[in-house]
Predict the structure.
Amino acid sequence: MDRTPTTTDVNPRVIPETDRSPSMATDMTLRTVCEMDRTPPMLEEPQISGRDTNSSKFGDISEDLMQTHDVFLSTLKSRLTKLQVVRHFWERNDIKGAINALRKLPDHFVQVDVISILMEKMEILTLDLFSCLLPVLVGLLDSKMERHTSVSLEMLLKLVAVFGPVVRSTVSAPPAVGVDLHAEQRLECCKRCFVQLQKIQQNLPAVIRKGGMVAKSALELNLVLQES
């Protein structure tokens, strides 16, 4: 006889109760999302494109060029004004006034330009003008520009060859007997020239040390000064 199983014999199927607490993975996920919400977004650094960099460089170059242009233009205007002052005396045939004005102008470029013109008109220069011109030539010897020194030496070679013997003979001559105003004026002029020529001779060693063509001209001038 078959035995019908009773309910007491049947083991009820146990259904596991669902865990209502959040899992560790879920908790970590939520925490990460919250932290991401609280974290401000990363701001990208502004980047300068190559075109902007080039524009900035070109702008700086343009500004430098404009400043240089303004300085150059101002320098040229100043030199033009100084040359006009010298020309004012020159047009009146006041060569001594032109040289004296040139001596008072602190611009070696203007002085060299005028001296270059005088070298082509040596016949107008006198002993008196020679004495006025010597301080200008002494100043040019100390210039850092080779052209200034070269022009000064070239002019000195021409002038010393003409007036050097006159200066030395007049200074070394015995005193004149009696009153001769012209001779006294000539003597004073030669004394001024002699002092300037001594300064030039003292400056020549520094010029010789520069070397080059100016050194050659300085050596030649030194020999002329010793012989005159």
Observations:
- Helices lie at 24-38, 50-90, 95-104, 108-118, 127-141, 146-172, 181-208, 212-227.
- Residues 1-46 have pLDDT under 50 and may be disordered.
- The longest helix spans residues 50-90.
- Residues 29 and 35 are 10 Å apart (CA to CA).
